[in-house]
Write a structure and sequence with these properties.
single chain, 1 helix, 5-stranded antiparallel beta sheet, N-terminal domain of TfIIb, mainly beta, about 25% strand, binds zinc ion
């Protein structure tokens, strides 16, 4: 099972309300504006500002 693309399009960053990009491994949702990633745990996006991981600390998938 993968995350529902239609659902993803409804998700926005809880801080800036900007669009999110799903990481290639589907383990996180990245906000460009906030330069951070919201983790996806057991296919449930954690849409909490407190849980956001800064880009440089993100240990999930890396582009490429
Ligand atoms: Zn944001």
């Amino acid at each position: 099972m993968t995350l529902d693309q239609e659902m993803l399009q409804l998700l926005v960053c809880p801080e800036c309300k900007g669009p999110l990009t799903l990481c290639p491994a589907q383990d996180g949702l990245r906000c460009d504006a906030c330069q951070g990633v919201y983790p996806v745990r057991e296919e449930i996006p954690v849409m909490l500002v407190e849980e956001r991981v800064p880009d440089e600390q993100w240990q999930g998938s890396v582009a490429d």
